Amino acid sequence: xxxxxxxxxxxxxxEAYPDATCSLDFTTPFELxxxxxxxxxxxxxxxxxxxxxxxxRCKTIEDFVNIPINELEEIIHPCGFYKNKAKNIKxxxxxxxxNFNGVVPQTMDELLTLAGVGRKSANVILLEVFGIAQxxxxxxxxxxxxxxMGLSSNKEPxxxxxxxxxxxxxxxxxxxxxxxxxxxxxxxxxxxxxCDICPVNMYCKHYKNN
Length: 210
Ligand code: SF4
Hints:
Shape: elongated
Oligomer: single chain
Bound molecules: iron/sulfur cluster
CATH superfamily of the largest domain: Hypothetical protein, domain 2
CATH architecture of the largest domain: Orthogonal Bundle
Structural class: mainly alpha
Distance between the termini: 20 Å
Low-confidence stretches: none
């Protein structure tokens, strides 16, 4: 795919979703780290209903380190996988405090040393907290859209990310991160994509083949 088409995909998606932004609520970098961890296998809507009570109870990174694990598990229970998530949140808080003087790090390599933070989460944190768009957070939406459109034939998120980064110009990566999520939620829906009204169907392999 040439760069002109790649740019046009972004422009058309931008037109369709002018309000596309991160839908997780947070006010500090570490709150976003926690929200991203909670969003694994859970909707952002559910996470946003859960975090107000959590962020009221834990106002500092020290609070996340010190909160009894049972209490943390109870608060985040609605987000699923609460035992694992609670363990990672506490360990991650300890690592940020001890290894980074309580400041969420700003590089991919450093973020990947934190418990519960994988490449997808690190990309979201870099983008939303620090405005650094160096990659693409390949979630379930980005994966599905990339495969359907023929932007990548890979199945592993990291390989899909490598394919997308080659296709889309660097200055558009930030948009793509948001736009794919919104496109996946609103039009390229998993069970029944609305191909007839899709703004980028002229560039979609799945559409052309059906
Ligand atoms: S044409 Fe259909 S499958 Fe292709 S991106 Fe649009 S909604 Fe998804």
